[in-house]
Here is the input.
Amino acid sequence: MSYGAAPGLQQAVFQHLTGTPALVGVATYDAVPPNATGTFILIGPEEARDQSDKSGAGAEHQLVISVITDATGFLSIKTIAADISDALISAPLTLVRGQLVSLYFLRASARRIEEGETRRIDLTFRARIQL
Here is the structure.
């Protein structure tokens, strides 16, 4: 197994999300910006597991993409989360290393953080990459 496809997967996801018309105007980051306010998308934690088999080397990446806001209510970020999910499901992402075999939605978690003033939805996707 190799973690070598991880940077390319993150880069491809970032490019796809920032190029998705429904997400125009929503900033996308890979680290929470200092003094963050408003609504933004965060490409966050990732876990990778070996998925090599007799056909060759491979890896499964579970990638978390979050929508975070200080706006009141969940509706606005649920809409953004749905747009992210729609944009990524079966997206034809091109990686700089390896080939994306599949990209599936796995789960979502919506919650309040920081004593209820900030809302966050974490979307987890499973990407299968052939190396």
Notes: The chain has a mean pLDDT of 95.
